Records
---
Amino acid sequence: MIKFNCTSCEQSYRVSDTYSGKKVRCKSCKSINIIPSPETQKTGCGDSIAAYNNLLKELLKAEKHSPTVEMES
Ligand SMILES: [Zn+2]
């Protein structure tokens, strides 16, 4: 099962894994959403580790892209 929310109105949907990457029209606001892959939507004991790893990656990325700051003396 893939759980996702409409990007426009936050309506939550649950669809089969086979719909991953497909476009769906939201029933309430009619906007098009692309169903995410099930890998990013896992729940359970492995979820916190995956989330932590993703957070680390994002932090590293942010660090690389952030401009250098000079300290004022
Ligand atoms: Zn919607």
Note: The first helix runs from residue 47 to 65.
---
Amino acid sequence: MSPPAIRDGLPADLDTIDAIESACFEADRFARRNLARMLRGGRTQFLLAGSEGYLALCFRRGSSVARIYSLAVRERARGQGIAAALIEAARRRARTAGCRALRLEVRESNAAARSLYRRAGFRLRKRLEDYYEGGEAALQLEAVLDREDPAPARERPHS
Ligand SMILES: CC(C)(COP(=O)(O)OP(=O)(O)OC[C@H]1O[C@@H](n2cnc3c(N)ncnc32)[C@H](O)[C@@H]1OP(=O)(O)O)[C@@H](O)C(=O)NCCC(=O)NCCS
């Protein structure tokens, strides 16, 4: 089955995004009211893959670095390239907005996400001690955005 097409998330998608968020994260997840505010506001763009996954991409005024705030794919839809496709869409968005890099934080223990980001061209920038609830460290990763579209993540060799 081909992965669902990616589209912009709108305020009307609050239930869908909130359901993905609750299904995928136990701790440090966005409260529904924060999601609602971000969906209404102008600085965060939501990319949705059907009702299976989403990515939140945040732009800061005056900054050439865009942040991936959240990325999640429902368990039933994992392993089909949905997260990789969402990341590629975010890269294109950020590049189109004139950004030079994409940044994010990931739990040090999140092997699946770390492998996903490595495959998508993200590299370690710094380690942030005691970043999450409970004291776990975060790894801050960065991908430099080239002028040209990079090859799709799935066509890249493993690094
Ligand atoms: C991490 C997550 C987003 C991956 O979503 P996904 O749609 O299954 O990922 P994809 O199918 O696009 O995988 C792309 C690549 O990522 C890596 N990857 C994904 N899941 C992996 C896993 N469980 N173990 C190892 N590598 C993994 C692989 O390199 C994979 O490429 P391959 O299938 O060709 O080997 C998903 O597991 C998830 O939502 N987890 C819970 C929430 C979370 O941790 N979000 C990230 C917070 S920073």
Note: The radius of gyration is 15 Å.
